[in-house]
């Protein structure tokens, strides 16, 4: 990122992603068989590379442009993430039913490509000096490792819902297929609406970040335990309860996801990393990598558990990721606070004795 520039990486990533999306919409013209499967993997891999480049660069640009309000800006932008989650399925379904398979992908790809020249003209260009700080030095910090686990657990929990929740809704509540998307609104709206407030809170009161991370993880775990609900609770699953839990999941995910990025940056600064675009690129890449890893592990493990144990137990087990991250974060911060208080108490008596000696000498 420091060698080619954040702006170029963002624009080129959007261009690759837009082209790959259009190509994916044309794959139905390819004959069935190994060629079709191979091209599907190839095109989606290209899309993933472009998306990763654009996302990594976008985080870096935002953090560089708003260094004192990172969480607020990220939280505000999550409104549009929620808007995309809300509008994407119905608009895509409408285009698919009205015009066929190709049109949704071609339309989305063209929209992305139209945004490329706009961003080329509007985005500022930031010069950066390559830093000597390495990726491994950052990721091997204990606190950063813990924050990476938080990102992974959140992404895994969210990814678990993609292949399993719609099937559970159709089977359990006997809803028409068209109403399934409305159930998703509970999670998307609560996440997008609460994110700006949580971001503002995280920036204005930085000491609250640790408690947001801990309480967000524990609350997410509890919500996934209640999503089925877990059979051990002997609570009958009802639609209103399911939607309520989804709303709480959206809020709890925001509590953990929004403070993570500024907390990693703060940890890096505390450990002597140089401030600049190079560090922002490292943190952005780390965040994207952990999120993508969770997005892969969540549906994979969740789909397997859903098939073997059912949605109720699968959701409860999936919430274990958030439970582990919340407990580990709480233990870490308590240990850190105890260590700091003990070290300060060891330093204060020396300072007090020196002060008393100085005063006694003055009196003499």
UniProtKB/TrEMBL annotation:
Swiss-Prot/TrEMBL keywords: Membrane, Transmembrane, Transmembrane helix, Transport
Domain Major facilitator superfamily (MFS) profile: 1-338
GO molecular function: transmembrane transporter activity
Region (Disordered): 342-364
Transmembrane segments: 7-27, 33-63, 70-91, 103-123, 144-170, 176-199, 211-233, 239-265, 277-301, 313-334
Name of the protein: MFS-type transporter SLC18B1
Pfam families associated with the record: MFS_1
Membrane topology: Multi-pass membrane protein
Polar residues bias: start-end ranges: 342-351
Top-level taxonomic group: Eukaryota
GO cellular component: membrane
């Amino acid at each position: 990122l420091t060698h080619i520039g954040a702006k170029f990486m963002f624009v080129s990533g959007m261009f690759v992603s837009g082209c790959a999306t259009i190509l994916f919409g044309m794959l139905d013209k390819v004959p069935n068989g190994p060629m079709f499967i191979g091209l599907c993997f190839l095109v989606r891999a290209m899309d993933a590379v472009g998306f990763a480049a654009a996302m990594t660069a976008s985080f870096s640009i935002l953090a560089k442009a708003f260094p004192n309000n990172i969480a607020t800006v990220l939280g505000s932008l999550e409104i549009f993430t929620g808007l995309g989650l809300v509008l994407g399925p119905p608009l895509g379904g409408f285009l698919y039913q009205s015009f066929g398979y190709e049109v949704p992908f071609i339309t989305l790809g063209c929209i992305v490509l139209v945004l490329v020249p706009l961003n080329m003209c509007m985005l500022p260009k930031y010069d950066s000096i390559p830093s000597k700080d390495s990726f491994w030095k950052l990721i091997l910090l204990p606190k950063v490792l813990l924050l990476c686990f938080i990102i992974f657990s959140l992404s895994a929990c969210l990814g678990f819902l993609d292949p399993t929740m719609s099937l559970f809704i159709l089977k359990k509540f006997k809803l028409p297929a068209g109403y399934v998307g409305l159930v998703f609104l509970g999670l998307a709206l609560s996440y997008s609406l609460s994110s700006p407030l949580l971001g503002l809170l995280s920036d204005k009161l930085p000491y609250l970040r640790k408690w947001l991370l801990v309480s967000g993880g524990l609350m997410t775990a509890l919500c996934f335990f209640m999503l089925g609900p877990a059979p051990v609770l002997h609570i009958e699953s009802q639609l209103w309860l399911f939607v309520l839990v989804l709303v709480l999941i959206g809020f709890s995910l925001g509590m953990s996801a929004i403070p993570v990025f500024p907390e990693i940056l703060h940890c890096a600064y505390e450990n002597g990393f140089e401030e600049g675009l190079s560090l922002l690129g490292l943190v952005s890449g780390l965040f994207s990598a952990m999120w993508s890893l969770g997005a892969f592990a969540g549906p994979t493990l969740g789909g397997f558990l859903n098939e073997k144990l059912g949605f109720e137990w699968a959701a409860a087990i999936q919430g274990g990721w958030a439970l582990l991250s919340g407990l580990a974060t709480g233990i870490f911060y308590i240990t850190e606070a105890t260590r700091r208080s003990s070290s300060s108490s060891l330093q204060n008596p020396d300072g007090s004795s020196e002060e008393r000696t100085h005063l006694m000498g003055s009196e003499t």
